[in-house]
Design goal:
The protein is of the alpha/beta class and 167 residues long. The protein contains 6 helices and 6 strands; from the N terminus they run βααβαβαβαββα. It has one domain: MoaB/Mog-like domain (Molybdenum Cofactor Biosythetic Enzyme, Chain A, 3-Layer(aba) Sandwich), CATH 3.40.980. The protein has a 6-stranded mixed β-sheet, with helices on both faces. The protein is globular, with a radius of gyration of 15 Å.
Length: 167
């Protein structure tokens, strides 16, 4: 299997306020910057699609399953414990392989400085050949999570596509 010639990336912001227009989406654009950096560092081409959805399970699930498929999906928002935080409950059942280590490491790393970071329930994994990461909605958290995710993104894609780069 070979890597895509151009990676299709979908950045999904979950926020009732951003969706209604009463709040500007700041976390989605922050994710886009990190993705562009990581793709350029790997010398990969990408096209990025952005969506802003309300905190609703049906809307998120439909967006995740719609065609055209993406090679990488990163969500921001909905990973807390509030009544409208539904992202992990929607994403986790769709994963064919979970990658718990990266989210656990991020929570521990940033949770030692800020115990509130331990309340994030973000998940990561693969849905077929699509990598999915679910991030908290704050811009600060996006910076923390993406700084760690980009360190492993290239290798994760090689593993997902069965390409041996260990030599």
């Amino acid at each position: 299997m070979t890597l895509p010639e151009k990676f299709r990336v979908h950045v999904i912001t979950l926020s009732d306020r951003a969706h209604s227009g009463s709040y500007a989406d700041l976390s989605g654009p922050a994710v886009v910057k990190y993705v562009k950096y990581a793709m350029a560092a790997a010398d990969w081409q990408c096209e990025i699609r952005k969506s802003v959805l309300p905190d609703e399970a049906v809307a998120l699930r439909a967006t995740l399953l719609e065609a055209p498929a993406a090679d990488l999906i990163i969500t921001t928002g909905g990973t807390g414990i509030g009544p409208r935080d539904i992202t992990p409950e929607v994403v986790k059942p769709l994963l064919t392989k979970e990658i718990p280590g990266i989210m656990e490491q991020i929570r521990v790393k940033y949770g030692t400085k800020n115990p509130r970071a331990l309340l994030s329930r973000g998940v990561a994994g693969a849905m077929g050949n699509t990598l999915i990461y679910t991030l908290p909605g704050s811009v600060k958290a996006v910076h923390e999570y993406m700084a760690e995710i980009v360190k492993t993104m290239e290798h994760t894609f090689y593993m997902l596509y069965g390409i041996d780069k260990h030599s």
